[in-house]
Amino acid sequence: MNSVVFAKNAINPSAPVGVFDSGVGGLSVLKEIRQRLPSEQLFYIADEAYVPYGEKSPDFIIQRSLAITQFLIEQGIKALVIACNTATAAAAGEIRTHWPWLPVVAMEPAVKPATQATRSGIVGVLATTGTLKSAKFAALLDRFAGNVRVITQPCPGLVEEIEQGNLATAEVKQLLAHYALPLVEQGCDTLILGCTHYPFLKNALSELVGDQIQIIDTGEAVARRLEFVLTQQQLLNQQSVNFKHDRFYSSGDLTRFAQVLPILWGEVEAIFNFTSTEELS
Questions:
Q1: 24 Cβ neighbours under 8 A, 6+ residues apart
Q2: How far apart (Å, rounded) are the C-alpha atoms in residues 27 and 84?
Q3: pLDDT digit string, tens, across residues 3-49
Q4: What CATH architecture does domain 111-217 belong to?
Q5: What's the burial of 144, exposed, middle or buried (CB within 10 Å: 0-12/13-18/19+)?
Q6: CA 172 to each of CA 60, 143, 150, 178, 182: distance values in angstroms, whole numbers, following the listed order
Q7: Domain map (residue ranges) of the chain
Q8: Residues identified as active-site
């Protein structure tokens, strides 16, 4: 309890924003945050030892999400972004209960904007098994789908390919065709990317389905929400920030993480192990 009180009292606008995902997919959200909030320092955790979350139990995801949040609080974050649809569905409520003082911005598949955008009245959802099975996703459909037909498609294997930095290989294109084309054949004119990994395949997906299919993800909306929350709580950083102070952590293979980061994010000066925070040169 003392550490929680200390973190609450120490919160200030110059503190970093913490962001986490099961792997590198949340970097797609991080890019939107960096573009919209260039003055914020960002701490990112890829829980790659356990990627993908979509195949794990809700209890396991809650355990990992709480451990990651506790670690980020110990690093002095002022706000948390859950850059993972599956972790949001399983653990956002638990995180908010444990740390009610901490501003938390979470993800959810873009059902509402997709149902507003569709012309055919048929929307497809590409997501992980965990997201599609969650009560939160079912509630989204109940709330926003209305008369729109929503066809869901779990996509095993895509997250693992993106974790390797494979964005346009023959294997990736084959998986995308297997998952997306049947939705288009059923009349979908709008596709929701229901996993933060999937925006990295947006170009390959667009080439596959054509320009007439709208592709929607929620990274930009999350960045806007974070800006609103920080502004509302007077936590926007007004000082200039050195991007070299951004931190990137992984609980998995740091060598692979170091190889994939330049592909999905850009060059970084150092990466850290999530469990020991030992810096790698």
A1: 46, 48, 162, 163, 197, 257, 260, 261, 264
A2: 10
A3: 444 445 557 899 999 999 999 999 999 999 999 999 999 999 999 99
A4: 3-Layer(aba) Sandwich (3.40)
A5: middle
A6: 28, 33, 24, 10, 16
A7: 2-107+221-280, 111-217
A8: 84, 195
